[in-house]
């Protein structure tokens, strides 16, 4: 397990992390979400020894991370960390050597990752000549080239075109299949929803929600019901007790039910107005869950 445990961090009087904790199992992908300035980068920098926590620690396989363990972690910093004048291939090989690979292994791994990330044609170009997205691919190659046991990636998808997103996603999923725990931060919640086994939402210095997307959904389940009655008169649901009409368009109605409201009462009321063609709980998207969690930060860990 990769464990972030009880991290506290203040900058002056500004408390950024107030007991942040989550775990990432080997072979799973964890999406680290939160508003701008929530503290995601700070959390990852603490893991990498680039910021010191006021309290708490990060462990890998039960051992607190030290510099030796960190050499086994592939890290993509938010500020990126490339040498602009170095050639792409040299740069990636340099990171491989830095993580302890010998010259032969570094050359082989560099060749493999440069090709896999679609940089083969740019291998001898200086990094500064590459577009932002391609520089990002170089950064990723640098994080992957040492065959890391763990990946910690700060906004790896930002600035990538859809093809870049797909090749990065494939690369990460193949790492996960190989047993690597992957943590990445992102504001692209559709990607997080698509790729991650579990997600954590950081707000107010705490993880306000962690779990699988389905677990987060279940927490919200039983609230939003979509009912389609094509021939129903307008406002048919307005008088159904324990129900609030969220939206109504033609016969397509989205209802929020109070906890004690029986959905069968709603179904009976709908049937009384006409033929019901759709009656189902609405699955909130991760974007909706995120808005809810960030708006009302009350720490809940559904993964327990
Ligand atoms: N070295 C520092 N000195 C003072 N304040 C800092 C420092 N590093 C970060 N902060 C502050 O800590 C807060 C959290 O920043 P951080 O970069 O960790 O957030 P984030 O969740 O990664 O944000 P974003 O999504 O915008 O990248 C911000 O208010 C930031 O200004």
From TrEMBL:
Pfam families (alphabetical): ABC_tran, DrrA1-3_C
Top-level division of the source organism's lineage: Bacteria
PROSITE patterns per UniProt: ABC_TRANSPORTER_1, ABC_TRANSPORTER_2
UniProt entry keywords in alphabetical sequence: ATP-binding, Nucleotide-binding, Transport
GO molecular function, one term: ATP binding
Domain ABC transporter: 2-229
SUPFAM superfamilies referenced in this protein's UniProt entry, alphabetically: P-loop containing nucleoside triphosphate hydrolases
Family: Belongs to the ABC transporter superfamily.
Family matches, as PANTHER family: ABC TRANSPORTER, ATP-BINDING PROTEIN
Name used for this protein in its record: ABC transporter ATP-binding protein
